[in-house]
Amino acid sequence: MGYSDTVQTARTYYNSDDADRFYATVWGGEDIHIGLYNSPDESIFDASRRTVERMASYLKLGGGERILDIGAGYGGAARFLAAKYGSHVDCLNLSEVQNQRNRDMNKDQGLADKINVIDGSFESVPAEANTYDYIWSQDAILHSGNRETVIQEVARVMKPGGEFIMTDPMQSDDCPEGVLQPVLDRIHLDTMGSPEFYRGACERNGMEELHRELMTHQLVNHYSRVRAVLKSEYDQIVANVSKDYVDRMIAGLGHWVEAGEKGYLAWGILHYRKK
């Protein structure tokens, strides 16, 4: 299976032992995306699950709907949707290591019959046109160097009247040129999307915006919280994750926090409907 350079870079990273151990044990395990925090010292797991709950509240779920989660990570959102609503979820994800954890957790939680885990890229979704009622994505599309292609694929495989809900770490619409280089270097990207980019890309592909809830302060909260845990539990963490990886993660998260506090980044829930 061929992948673009940026997607292959992300695949290699998330398949690494260090990344797998870090995201499975520190970041939250079930949900490896930005959380919604009620307090600065809240558990990463609880805050991350709250994002899933908030996103699901915008959808009309009652069981039987087909959902595609693109960039599904360990599949926490899929298990939530399947367990609470009875949804049938396909998890499309590029990391074979994450996908195996996903399958194992689905089996352990008795949800394997409702969740299908697919090795692949959201730049070329292995599905027929007009297949899904909902497309779901959390903090994944930034890893594509062809984000317009990803949105085209979302529109292609979603049924008319279907809905696309996503989050993504983005640059702000008025971000000055060049200021995000430390962030981009850390995640091996040349660019990031923005709220206006996603609005425009969705409109160009036959979708209308239903709702936009920007909560960039939660990006700052989340990366600050993960960084604090890495520092406070440093000795225990480096027993399982390499010291070099942890040190680079602490430095990289600092760049994210600084850029977010300066207003250079954006994050939130974006919600669209296919016309």
What order do the helices and strands come in, and which of them pair?
Layout (H helix, E strand, L loop, with lengths): L4 H11 L1 H11 L16 H14 L8 E5 L5 H10 L2 E6 L2 H13 L6 E5 L12 E7 L8 H11 E10 L2 E2 L9 H6 L8 H10 L2 E8 L1 H17 L1 H4 L5 H19 L3 E2 L1 E7 L1
Helix pairs in contact: 3-4, 9-11
Strand content: 15-25%
Looking at the structure, what is the overall shape? Answer: globular
Radius of gyration: 18 Å
The major beta sheet can be summarized as:
7 strands, mixed
What share of residues is helical? 40-55%
Describe this entry's structure for a reader.
With 275 residues, the protein is an alpha/beta fold. The chain has a single domain, classed as Rossmann fold. It has helices at residues 5-15, 17-27, 44-57, 76-85, 96-108, 147-157, 181-186, 195-204, 216-232, 234-237, 243-261, and strands at 66-70, 88-93, 115-119, 132-138, 158-167, 170-171, 207-214, 265-266, 268-274. Strands 3-2-1-4-5-9-7 form a 7-stranded mixed beta sheet, with helices on both faces. The chain starts with a helix and ends with a strand. 45% of the residues are buried. The model has no long low-confidence stretch (mean pLDDT 95).
